[in-house]
Amino acid sequence: MRLVLLGPPGAGKGTQGDRLIERHGIVRLSTGDMLRAAVKAETPVGLRAKDIMARGELVSDEIVIGIIDDRLKESDVQNGFILDGFPRTVAQAEALDRLLAARGIKLDAVVELKVDESILLQRIETRIAEMTARGEAIRADDNPESLKKRLDAYRVQTAPLSAYYAKKGTLQEIDGMVSIDAVTAAIDTKLKALQ
Ligand code: ADP
To answer: Is 150 one of the annotated active-site residues of the chain?
Structure first.
C-alpha cells in the first residue's frame, strides 16, 4: 500500500499515520521528521532548513524532493509507505509522480483529513500545553506566530493538492473532526473499497 496523508497541521496525520503503518506493515516517510533530524545533526540540508522551518515557512522543493528521492531508494519502502508532509506544493506532487513513474509504481490513495481551521489552532495549543506539562521539548515552530504561518502555507500552497489528486481520481476525503477511532474506521472503509 502506497499512501499520501494530506491535511493541515493538527489534522491528526501523526495519530492516523501510526495506526496505518502498524496495520499495513508499511513505513512512514515524514519530511518534517527527516528535516528535524537533519537540523539536529547539523547536516548541510539541516543548516539550510533550520530558520525557514522555525518561521513556519516551507523549505525549497528541491531540498525535500531530493530527500524523498533518496529515501525511496532504501529497501524498507518496497513493502509500501505513507508519505506524511510530502508533497506540500503542486511542484512537489508533480516531482513525486515522476519519481514513482521512474520506479514503475503508483499511489494507491491520497487520504485527506479535513478539519476546520478554528479547531486546528485549539488542538495544537492543547498539544503544546500537554507536552509542556510532561516536560517534553516543544518544536521550534510550535509558537503562535509560526503556527499561523504554517496554516497560511497550507492554505495557499498545499490545499490546491486536493484538486490535483481529485482530478487523478486518487483523492479520498475524510472528516477529521470526529473521534480518533471514527476517523480510523472511515479511512479503513475507504481503503478497503479500493481493494
Ligand atoms: P506540520 O505539523 O506543520 O504539518 P511537519 O512536521 O510536516 O509539520 O513539517 C514541519 C516543517 O518542515 C514545515 O513547516 C516546513 O518548514 C518543513 N517541511 C516539511 N515537509 C516539507 C515539504 N514537503 N516541503 C517544504 N517544507 C517542508
So the answer is: yes
Amino acid at 105: I
CA-closest candidate to residue 154, choices 40, 10, 3: 10
Sign of CA dihedral 160, 91, 20, 141: negative
Each domain of the chain, given as residue ranges in start order, spans 2-26+79-115+158-194
- For residue 144, is pLDDT > 90? no
77-81 average pLDDT score = 94
The rounded Å distance from CA 58 to ligand 1 centre is 6
How far, in Å, from the CA of 193 to the mean position of ligand 1? Answer: 30
CATH of 2-26+79-115+158-194, one of 3.20.20.140, 3.40.50.300, 3.40.50.10420, 3.90.79.10: 3.40.50.300
How confident is the model over 88-97, as pLDDT tens digits? 999 999 999 9
Task: Judge whether 127 counts as a catalytic residue.
Answer: yes
Ligand 1 atom with the shortest distance to the CA of 92: 23
Angle at 111 between CA 184 and CA 60, to 5 degrees: 130
Q: Give the per-residue pLDDT at 55.
A: 96
* Under 8 Å between Cβ of 29 and 68: yes
Active-site residue (options: 13, 28, 36, 50): 13
Q: Which three cell numbers stand for residue 52?
A: 525557514
Q: How far is the CA of 59 from the centre of ligand 1 (A)?
A: 8
Instruction: Identify whether 155 is a catalytic site residue.
Output: no
